[in-house]
């Protein structure tokens, strides 16, 4: 499949810079696969739209406030984007300006922390050790001085004195994120539309919620650069599924599942395809490098909530596969839906509106 099929034209004004004033007041495009019917609704109406009760599977990973601004010895500016812990105080990170931070160089905020570059890699990543830290660990440091890693298409100067750190810290996080699982380098954005009140209404009408934790990495958003979709090398992400969610995924004949977002779907699909023999009283830990694209079948989900994704993304491939399970044409169908969404003033990407596929 030629990767150019994943291109589409998006007017810049359709890229959401801010979320909806109230989370569940975002627009919701409803697509019914059996009939091809499209409805334009509000996310707050989700309970009225669903044809029956579902087992919702959602990613409860919390976003690490991973963007740290500091200074190097010369006085120059440094941006450190933490990706994942390696051991103790050593983290994998992206550094800017990378050329001015060779192995052995350090960066710091006086009286707060000092970090040293241990190793650098060809892909632009680096290994960084926090040799001094006012706080008890690196995550606590991030909570106190870091900023959430907003994607570059959200045009916000996070270094500006008037930057509203509190706003993005709250809104670039789901209401059900588990603070003890601060492992995401980006928000699982389909979940940003839920409010506690909406979750309560859904539960009262017979729906149930189950959590997984997928360590969302930046690789999720890397564009496909190969000429053929099939030649793209997928990154790997760690996930954990607790016993109650395992029982739902193992008992698919008894439960209709609705995946909240592509991260939930990717982890669940990886688990279901591997179909390991597991102890249903213990958490399952997995490692997903699964790349889903048409004409693959999705075996873990009956419905999907997702946002509108970037061109050339693996997320478009996954949603396309869900639209036309077992058949080609899913990406073309997704682009038709996106065209309708653009014509109806839907807002795209992380802070944008949502789509429900039934």
From TrEMBL:
Catalytic activity: 7-aminomethyl-7-carbaguanosine(34) in tRNA + S-adenosyl-L-methionine = epoxyqueuosine(34) in tRNA + adenine + L-methionine + 2 H(+)
Membership in a protein family: Belongs to the QueA family.
Quaternary structure and interacting proteins, as annotated: Monomer.
Cited function: Transfers and isomerizes the ribose moiety from AdoMet to the 7-aminomethyl group of 7-deazaguanine (preQ1-tRNA) to give epoxyqueuosine (oQ-tRNA).
Protein name from the UniProt record: S-adenosylmethionine:tRNA ribosyltransferase-isomerase
Keyword terms, alphabetized: Cytoplasm, Glycosyltransferase, Queuosine biosynthesis, S-adenosyl-L-methionine, Transferase
Primary residence: cytoplasm
Localization: Cytoplasm
InterPro entries in UniProt: QueA, QueA_dom1, QueA_dom2, QueA_sf
Enzyme Commission no: 2.4.99.17
HAMAP family: QueA
Pathway: tRNA modification; tRNA-queuosine biosynthesis
MF term (GO), any: S-adenosylmethionine:tRNA ribosyltransferase-isomerase activity
């Amino acid at each position: 499949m030629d990767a150019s099929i994943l291109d589409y034209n998006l007017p810049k004004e359709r890229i959401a810079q801010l979320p909806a004033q109230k989370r569940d007041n975002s627009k919701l495009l409803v697509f019914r696969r059996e009939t091809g019917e499209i409805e334009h609704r509000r996310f707050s109406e989700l309970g009225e739209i669903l044809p029956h009760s579902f087992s919702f599977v959602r990613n409860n990973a919390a976003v690490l406030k991973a963007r740290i601004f500091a200074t190097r010895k010369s006085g120059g500016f440094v941006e450190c984007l933490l990706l994942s812990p390696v051991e103790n105080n050593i983290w994998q990170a992206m550094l800017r300006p990378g050329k001015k931070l060779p192995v052995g160089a350090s960066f710091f905020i006086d009286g707060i922390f000092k970090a040293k570059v241990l190793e650098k890699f060809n892909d632009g990543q680096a290994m960084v050790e926090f040799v001094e830290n006012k706080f008890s660990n690196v995550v606590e440091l991030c909570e106190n001085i870091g900023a959430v890693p907003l994607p570059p298409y959200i045009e916000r100067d996070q270094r500006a004195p008037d930057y509203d750190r509190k706003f993005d810290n709250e809104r670039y996080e789901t209401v059900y994120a588990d603070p003890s699982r601060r492992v995401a380098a980006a928000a699982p954005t389909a979940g940003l539309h839920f409010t506690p009140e909406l979750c309560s209404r859904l539960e009262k009408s017979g729906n149930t919620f189950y959590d997984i934790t997928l360590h969302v990495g930046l690789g999720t958003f890397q564009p496909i650069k190969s000429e053929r979709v099939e030649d793209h090398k997928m990154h790997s992400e760690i996930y954990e599924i607790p016993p109650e969610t395992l029982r739902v995924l193992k008992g698919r004949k008894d439960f209709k599942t609705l995946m909240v977002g592509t991260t939930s779907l990717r982890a669940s699909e990886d688990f279901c395809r591997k179909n390991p023999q597991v102890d249903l009283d213990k958490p399952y830990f997995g490692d997903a490098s699964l790349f889903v694209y048409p004409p693959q079948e999705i075996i873990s989900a009956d419905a999907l909530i997702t946002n509108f994704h970037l061109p050339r993304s693996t997320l478009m491939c996954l949603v396309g596969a869900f639209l036309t399970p077992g058949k080609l044409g899913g990406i073309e169908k997704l682009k038709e839906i996106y065209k309708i969404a653009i014509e109806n003033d839907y807002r795209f990407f992380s802070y944008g509106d949502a789509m429900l596929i039934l």
